[in-house]
Amino acid sequence: MTDDFYCDEVFSGKTPVKKVLETENVLAYYHTKPFWPVHIVVVPKKHINSLLTLTDRSLIIEIMDVLQRVSKEVTEEHGQCRVLTNLGNYQDSKHLHFHVNSGKPRK
Predict the structure, then answer these.
(1) What is the model's pTM?
(2) Number of helices and strands (H, E) in the chain?
(3) How far apart are CA 25 and CA 50, in angstroms?
(4) d(CA 5, CA 73)
(5) Half-sphere exposure of 42 (CA within 13 A, CB side)
(6) Domains of the chain
(7) Residue 6 to residues 74, 75, 76, 95, 104, Cα–Cα distance (Å)
(8) Cα gap 59→15, rounded to integer Å
(9) CA distance readout (Å), 39 to 45, 57, 58, 59, 99
(10) Which residues does residue 42 pair with via DSSP β-bridges, in sequence order?
């Protein structure tokens, strides 16, 4: 196994996920091991290492559209949300992904 959970597990179907929103190139789904009460992952279906290597402008727009739509739903339902991505050693899976979350971290 590599350090790319999304290609190795999610997109291969080995780890089933509950989809929130899906477009041609982007998937949003509920995190399989949520750290927050509301924890959604937004990930491009094409392998991209991180935000630092994302150069495809049309994909940037598609990712931002999905992030905006998911964030709007979470904010309307819960009154607030965060959107974050990790880089470098903070990035457990070396595949660009964003977390849309709300609530206090679970212990």
Answers:
(1) 0.94
(2) 2, 5
(3) 16
(4) 26
(5) 24
(6) 5-102 (3.30.428.10)
(7) 23, 25, 28, 7, 25
(8) 24
(9) 19, 26, 26, 22, 7
(10) 28, 98
- The per-residue pLDDT for range 1-56, each reduced to its tens digit, is 468 999 999 999 999 999 999 999 999 999 999 999 999 999 999 999 999 999 99
Query: 18: which residues sit within 8 A by CB, 6+ positions away?
Result: 29, 30
Alpha helices in the chain, H assignment, sequence order:
5, 57-78
Q: DSSP state, 95?
A: S
With tokens 């924890």, the residue in question is 39
Amino acid at site 89: N
Calpha distance 39→19 (Å, rounded): 12
